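Lay summary

Proteins are chains of building blocks that fold into shapes. Our project writes down both the chain and a compact code for its shape. Here are two examples, one after the other.
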Amino acid sequence: MEGVSRHLLYVLARIPEMAHWGLLRDSDSSDSTELQQHLQEWPEMSSPCFWMGVFALIQLVFIMSISVQFLHKRTRGKTGITLIDSSITEPLLNPSIVQQIETKRPCPYGKANILQLVTFSWMNPVFAIGYKKPLEKNDVPDIYEKDSAEFLSDSFKKIIDDVEFRHGLNTKSIYTSMFLFIRRKAIINAGFAVLCASASYVGPSLINDLVKFLVGERRYGLKTGYLLAVAFLSAKVVETIAQRQWIFGARQLGMRLRAALISHIYQKGLRLSCGSRQKHTSGEIINYMSVDVQRITDVIWYTNYIWMLPIQLSLAVYILHQNLGDGAWAGLAATLAIMACNIPLTRMQKRLQAEIMAAKDGRMKSTTEVLRSMKILKLQAWDMQYLQKLEALRNVEYNWLWKSVRLSAVTTFIFWGSPAFISSITFGSCILMGIPLTAGTVLSALATFRMLQDSIFTLPDLLSVFAQGKVSADRVAKYLQEEELKCDAVIEVPRNGTEYDVEIDHGIFSWEIETTSPTLKGIELKVKRGMKVAICGMVGSGKSSLLSCILGEMPKLEGTVRISGSKAYVPQSAWILSGNIRDNILFGNPYDKDKSVYEDADIYLFDDPFSAVDAHTGSQLFKDCLMGILKDKTILYVTHQVEFLPAADLILVMQHGNIVQNGRFNELLQQNIGFEAIVGAHSQALESVINAESSSRMPLTENSKPADNDDEFETENEMDDQIQGITKQESAHDVSQDINEKGRLTQDEEREKGGIGKKVYWAYLRAVHGGALVPVTIAAQSFFQIFQVASNYWMAWASPPTSATKTTVGLGLLFSVYITLSIGSALCVFARSTLVSLIGLLTSEKFFKNMLHCIMRAPMSFFDSTPTGRILNRVSNDQSVLDLEIANKLGWCVFSVIQILGTIGVMSQVAWPVFAIFVPVTVVCFMYQRYYIPTARELARLSQIQRAPILHHFAESLSGASSIRAYGQKDRFRKSNLGLVDNHSRPWFHNISSMEWLSFRLNMLSNFVFAFSLTLLVSLPEGFINPSIAGLAVTYALSLNSQLASIIWNICNTENKMISVERIMQYSRIPSEAPLLVDYRRPPKQLATSWNYQYKMLGGPICRASPICSEKHIMYNSRKEKSGYCRTLSIIPQDPTMFEGTVRGNLDPLNEYSDQRVWEILDKCQLGDIVRQNPKKLDSTVVENGENWSVGQRQLFCLGRVLLKRSNVLVLDEATASVDSSTDAIIQETISDEFRDCTVLTIAHRIHTVIDSDLILVFSEGRIIEYDTPLKLLENESSEFSRLIKEYSQRSKGF
């Protein structure tokens, strides 16, 4: 034993020197010769610990040499991997999407030497800053260049391109690419993991030798004891270093793979074809990026157990066989039985997890839809019904969670009861086989069983993680294989090679590849350079689709599309990025104060951009922009405004996917085929305006005045005075000024600073039954610890020190007492685990409902200023932490203290002076903890905050992918994504590094306490202490480092996890909108009649001269009783909103009307024939956000909702802006018929839709400037309304 320890110490002492000078590779040096002499003496040793010492040494030398070479190459840049310069300087969301140059932050990890890498002391500068003040984003150093998202993305792309070139793109090739991407780092991690597993079993193998030494077998005197102590300590130090390195390496490797996969999932999203895009909703694709990628990276961690488990089991069996002989096989059988028992439990847990994820996906899908459609839900008073729907979905999830936590309680019971069960089987078998049990063999076996505890439960977890990881990897691989937009869909032609900017020959296009009726058929189009081409037609005729096929967005079945020059595209539905107005206008271009149109393209495609603006603004845009600044450019514009058609060089009339007419304006009128119907509808509208304008100029006589003028307008004037008063108050505070001051509506996410407040912990602990179950749980854990210590103490005390010593108790009594105490401890831990699971889930549910109710009752201003990603982050990730983690983390803060008290109690029985060193070491540990927490806490907060922008940016990019592609901005957005990934990786990487920094120091301090205790034990005179109890103390001391580290680790980790509770509590304090019911302000029973009269006076159509909306005034009185009022109110918002599901579900979400009534409404909305053509009829599919229907059709569906509801008050906010004039005329007639007895408030830019209203309310810059009857407003030729009428008439001159 002495020889082994001497040689081991020599080699361990020389490793740093050898690593520095490369002596392990220099066989000619004298130092190497001396080392070889020491190694040659080792085969003479025959102690049981010899081979494990040799194995651990070889592993250590191997890993250290590889690490030194790897680090040496890394600092010199000779790894063989080409470095790609990373210049991520474009933060997208906050504060700007444009390119900015950030301050370069040094990367201490990249400059660290080997000692700093082993001890993680390269983190010291970060802790120095974090201890002085809360860390800000710019205080966190940059990540190492080989951990940057751009380097990793490019490296992964090279690998996957190479594999695809050799084997094609399939699931297997993507698996191969991931393996090749991680293999080098994974091999190093595997070496550290194997070394850690080997070193961990050195201690249990030496316990029997230690007990023999304490009994009196001291052939070499005290030197043997000291060498044993050194061997114990050396193994623990090696274990600590190896463990910290493989854990850190696995997390770093997971971060690298996550960055590579996220970047490729993002880039794939920008290239998906239309058919592929419809297969995956935005929520599903975002899940690939968040949930599935996380599961894949979890596999990286657990992969190391593949190498560790066989070694751990083999060493355990070896140690047991050395001490217990054939009794070891009984222990192995019991171990395998426990593992076999866990496999079905793991399968059950896996099924439950699948159900939980399915339920969560359903809840998150509905939550996303509700948040996206919150405006329409509140306007229609559907928010409470959808709140109930979300609660019902949560109840489904909760039921699965409850089953899962109950199963987890059973699993925990087996986990903590397995050492007692295995030891009972093993010791019972030894008694039956007559194998003598001594204190040394019993204690060595108990230590081994405790080591086996992790191995037993790692296997089921390993299988579960691999199963989940494979499912996620398959999902991601399938997504990465989806069809992309065809590169050859549009042929790019050089500018000097043709006179045509756009050419389509024999074009047949369809959104669905497998179809017998293409969307566009027989398209023939040639657009010369500089031409202005107008595209018009009825709703759903294929106008937007024609632009899509020019952009290459629409699948081409036949024909050729040729484009010459760059493109710019304005979609029908405005796509606005989070940020500020300037960045949305510049869109990556440099700022120039003299510039108006920033995208200097050759071809401009406008998809009906004039529908959303008033007549004056539309005319100005058309004149100054299209026909002015862009007069020399090629322009194709879709429009429903007939007055913009005469200026076109070519007009295309679309019908049922065909270009049925083409030519100039006068030519089409003469053809008398169908174009005149569009013009005729416009002419009728113009005639109504001209008649109204003419009648206003006729002198009014007494007889021509309205009969009820004196009475009605006296009331009207009183109301007008009230409105003017409101106007003055409202105008005193200019909202636009606030927006300009802040620069953007969406502000930075709220972030707490400093420690997690006691109120947060107190609120969590008292959420269920006022915290009454907490002390019961602590008592259950305390009794478990008492029973466990008592059972081990009993075995150590009752077993003879040697086989020659007479036993103090009979074997039957020894075994019976041990079994009884073990059962007691198992029952206590079962009670504890059940209580923790119950408390955690009930608390989680209470927090969730509070947050959900606050979110659903929040005012619209909250949703306008809060990105959806922030809310989703809380209801998904943070809520999952509460569901499954927080309770256990908080519990273990207390349980680990109880555990270490038991260990110290056992150690104090034989080495009470250990308190003299344990107390100051504990103080130092807590000082480390207090020094660590401020930095780690802020890093965790920054990491969580920086995660949401990645998902939010991805969701925005998916919704505007066509615009990104049209402007050729894919590379810029790719870099923005990489920058956001790096912004998340920086705090995340330094957070996990800070954990290892603390863990390494705590482990080394624990090793110091362990070394002191061992030195004390071996220094005591022979017979001074009971050798059996001393051996028990050492058995417990072997886990002292992990227990002491566990206390600090659990406290720190819990504080990091409590951030999720803190964040959820933030959204549980959102200021609420007015109560649903205020008893003391409830209106009288004649509610409908009196309010109808008020709104008739106040209301009437509103013609706006600016884009400021007037709903604030309209909704003013509704706060008296929102729910009752909104049932009498219907609103069609400016942005048509549709829910994923069916046509019927969108028209009648609450299922209140018959199918016959729904069909009647569809016919009145001009949608009946379109829906009947679909085989599913009313069950026709509506995809996410109604993307499979045109914008005009979506507006008609929204109109159908209000026709079905038949409310007393109808508000139309640009309800027909995206439909053609003839359809608009039919809709206006329908509204007049259906709501003839109702109050209708129309917000419109089309003058003819409001000219016959009772009252006109004109807005300008957010203020009411005119309010009167149309006749009186037109009498005053200087009025704003008269000016709008004149402008409309002048613009339409010639019809």
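And here is the second example, written the same way.
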Amino acid sequence: METVPGEETQLVPREDMFWSCRQTILEEMKKKFSQIENAGEEPRVLCIIQDTTNAKTVNERLTLNLPASTTVSKLFEDVALKAGYVNGSFHLAWGNMTDMVVLDQSSEMPLSDSGFEPGKKNFLQLTDKDGEQPQLASGESGTVDSSGLDDNTQDRFIGPLPRDGIVGCSNDYSSYSYASILKSETGYVGLVNQAMTCYLNSLLQTLFMTPEFRNALYNWEFEEGEEDPVTSIPYQLQRLFVLLQTSKKRAIETTDVTRSFGWDSSEAWQQHDVQELCRVMFDALEQKWKQTEQADLINQLYQGKLKDYVRCLECGYESWRIDTYLDIPLVIRPYGASQAFGSVEEALQAFIQPETLDGPNQYFCERCKKKCDARKGLRFLHFPYLLTLQLKRFDFDYTTMHRIKLNDRMTFPEELDMSPFIDVEDEKSPQTESCTDSGAENEGSCHSDQMSNDFSTDDAVDEGICLDSASSTERVLKPKSLLTFELFSVMVHSGSAAGGHYYACIKSFSDGQWYSFNDQHVSKITQEDIRKTYGGSSGSRGYYSSAFASSTNAYMLIYRLKDPSRNAKFLDAENFPEHIKRLVQKEKEAEEQEKRQREIERNTCKIKLLCMHPVKMVMMENKLEVHKDKTLREAVEMAYKLMDLEGLVPLDCCRLVKYDEFHEYLERSYEGEEDTPMGLLLGGVKSSYMFDLLLETRRPDQVFQTYKPGEVMVKVHVVSLKNETIASPVSVRAYLNQTVAEFKQLIAQATGLSADTMRVVLERCYNDLRLLYVPNKTLKAEGFFRSNKVFVESSDSADHQVTFTDSLLWKLLDRHGNTIRLFVSLPEQSPGLLANRTSYQKVGDESEDSFGGTKSSTKSVEAILEESTEKLKNLSLQQQQEQQDLGSSNSDSQNTSDVEHADSLSQEVSTASSASAVDNRELENRIQIVGGSGTASDPENQLPSEERSDSDVNNDRSTSSMDSDILSSSHSSDTLCNADSGPIPLANGLDSHSITSSRRSKAHEARKETWDTAEEDSGTDSEYDDSGKSKGEAQYLYFRAEPYCQEDGSGDSHKCLLVHVDKRITLATFKQKLEPFVGVPSSQFKVFRVYANNQEFESVRLNETLSSFSDDNKITIRLGRALKKGEYRVKVYQLLVNDPEPCKFLVDAVFAKGMTVRQSKEELLPLLREQCKLDLSIDRFRLRKKTWKNPGTVFLDYHVYEEDINISSNWEVFLEVLDEPEKMKSMSQLAVLTRQWRPSRMKLELFQEVVLESSSVDELKEKLSELSGIPLENLEFAKGRGTFPCDISVLEINQDLDWNPKVSTLNVWPLYISDDGAVVFYRDKTEEPMELSEEERNELMKKESSRLLKTGQRVNYSPRKEKALKIYLDGGPTKDPGQD
């Protein structure tokens, strides 16, 4: 910019240049604003990118909101700029897929055509390219080390990390494994956690980072012919170590190693102790390495020796035994102590500190020949080369009887000097001596007189480090000062005694750097991070410090002896043995093969494939996996073979088309694109697509139709008003910009109908019918979508002149949309043969009073039952005679029947001929006649009038109490008239019968009864007429029933109905329609809905419609009186407090609103006598509240249902038989169930009821004292826990219940006894408990466990035992043949 001198020699811009620049800036701003404005109109794509190339960036997200027209290559540029990487040094892959699909960086396709969805989150992953991490763009600040990370910002973490895809990740990543793509910057490889194998991963990484163990493992060679490599533990460990050293993966699997252990997948879900695993694995390796150079490897590296001794303090005589050890267990907090040890050194000192045996614990000295004071202790003889210290953080709390974890702080040094722990002889002893084990026996004794001269020499030679590979001269010269060990592994446990997580902090002997090996995550850590694993808190070391301490702390420490002559270095690849080099090459080839396979997977399109089988005519489904470079022609051939169409259809008669299965919509065909690659055709490589492919077939003489993008699919149903039928659909393709007039012409060509008189009705959604009457309106404006359904009718009838909603067409379509198909199972016991009945409606007037339908009727339920039963008997005796008599009178019955066929839909609109209105017609193609029809003369179709097996009664106890009133006075033969033929027999001998819009006789409507309970005051009655029928229901009475036979499991057929019915009719009307088929009035049978699990529930709300039912629902009809207004069906159960099963079903009964408890008891007495054989008097049983299986409030005789007692449908009540007359007379009384506990016999006595006049504790104790004879001052009681019967183990009752609470009333804490049915245990506090041996206790424990499991009670004292950790040397455990 040009400047000129100004005042005070300052350079200022020239004015013309200033204005020129300003103008340029304004133009640029306008241009930018214009771009922004245009971009605002364009859809935008939200891209969320996760950088998975680095452990410290794995939880970070890059977010880009780009226009949908942005190219893929521009996306790579923007990501590189935002992430700070060089473009081209990384991959971008879809992140919400199981298989990683990489984007093509060179693609110039817009994002909208590359699988990105505008307006939604598109998850991507930034991954390394060709195994190399992305290059950082120039200008990055900070000094980057060889690992590619700044030392100052080096990611440091120790402790448990979240599982991939759970914390810090979107749900779209939950199924994605990072193990194969993340590469640790440390150069070390992690191990994948199978489920709960973190303890195994920690130990394996420690062994891998031990040079002596790794090198020895590499020197062992596997002999192919001698053993199966799958079950060889050393070979699988060798393979694992080779992969850990050479693999480029982020983490590798351990499944091959665990398979060699003989473990199955269930072992991955068992967490074990890492120290236990170490011992078991070492044992297995020793067994596998027998008779090899590595046979003594474990002992050479990890085994030490110590002496267990007892020394007499009077004569100095010492008895000892030599023991070996692989690890030293160090106590965190001594038993009974309130303070934990502060360091490993303190714990080691306590480990070898001798204890004095005196008093009753005196030691019998063989020299003194008497019991003497003695000193017992341990003395280290040899320390192993690799010293393992186990910090015993898991303990058992005898107060709570639970395992606990001690989180107290315990420090440990990086270098541990073990020389102070060699000589711990008590110099104050009268005679001090030492007994060595230089090749001696493992057990022996010695004394000072024999060994005093050699004491100092032996001590120097035999106590120290055991170097089996060194010469005897070197061993003698090894001084104590060289017993310095270097810490290199800390195995950390995070969690509690119930479970947690293991990981390892390991120091590399190559560079001295500490690393955290946390399953698949490996990262650098510092010495400060190691100090964080000491545990505890910065506060005191008191008794309760552990409870408030961190749960992440060191559990196992491994030290290595600092000895330059023995300290080994790791073998590098050049120095590998030949067999290891071959193994490395083999694993590298396998990894390359896996990489190639993964590359193929990345380029494979996986899409759902559908095909309509040309012979079976069923839609087949499969998954087509095709490489993106395969052409459409090749893909068709693959799909042809996949669907197994060879021999059925020629290959040239098949093609692939784009298909939307949800909408059943053919989106487009691919004419002329046979050589186009599938990747381009499908819009990129994905593992799932928003559309499917359909393999379409044709006959050789047919031609494929062209499906163009933008077309919509229309299924056209032709409607016939004359036949009242709706034809199967014809598929027509149209465009959204077509007019209705053009669309009619298109339909006319496809169906042959006249477009001039055509009416087109679009069904946009359920019950939404729209008449397309505006010729110039487009289909899009009318609401057409991808897939549509229309109904067309073309005729010259007068129905065209009627308003659409009043027309016959609308009513037919409305009926079509609301008709459902139901399977109705008729009752097996039907009152007489249908051929023996006259019209039900005819006798309806005569039998009016017998049903109690008149207002003056006061007959009880029992009276009706007896009357109906008697009529049934009379009918059964006269059947044969009536059959002959009624044969000639059926025609008369037909003419005089009050039953009239309903008017057809055409009769409602016009006065068309009534002769055609009663024909059996098809509503639509999907409503078909199922099964055959029977006749009354068929003896197989004739069911006996009164037969019911015991099994039927038992299987249907819910209706058994009502079976005696199933018959009413309508015992004459019922027949419906057909306008064109003679009488049609009904019910079990059914012929096809159709009722469309029937009108009931006035006499029958008068007998209609409605159901009502708690809803009777809901205000809905005004919507219904006196018959319970909806006032607007007349148009919804379509009903058609057809017989069909249903096979049951035994091979017998059962008579059923296939019913097509308008689901808007009420249950009351539906039952009326079923009356002719069942053979009894609707008030004398019940409707049960059958659900998928074969559970049945009674439908009782007569005013509700069938809208909750759907096609093919099952209904069971059971005989029995339906409920009247204000009545409730009640299930009565007997309460048996001292039985193993205290709840036993008795009968079904009917209780009415306003009835007293005594009245209901009177109603129950005959039922109990007849059905349950219980002969009771009314004052020797009571009714009480039932909540599940818990007895509650006792109902008094004067209580009134709905006033004093809330009652509802399907209510349940307890009936309790009394040994004496009822004592409960008032609501102020309290009935308590009591049970005596006898500690001396380890037994609970039977329940006994105590009735209290008040809630006083003193009264309760007095009653219990009177009942049991226990003195009042010795009586203790406790409230039972949980629900009735409050079962508890006799081994726990003493300590688990709150005995003798300090309260004066029962209705306060901790008792809260304010209702009947509470359980109270009581005992004599002076009664001593039975002494049990261990065997008796175990036996009693088993019995109690079995008893409590049967009653469904929780057994607290028998927790689930942990599965023992085992490594199987023979390939796996042998399954017990007795096990399933």
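What can we say about the second shape? The chain has a mean pLDDT of 75.
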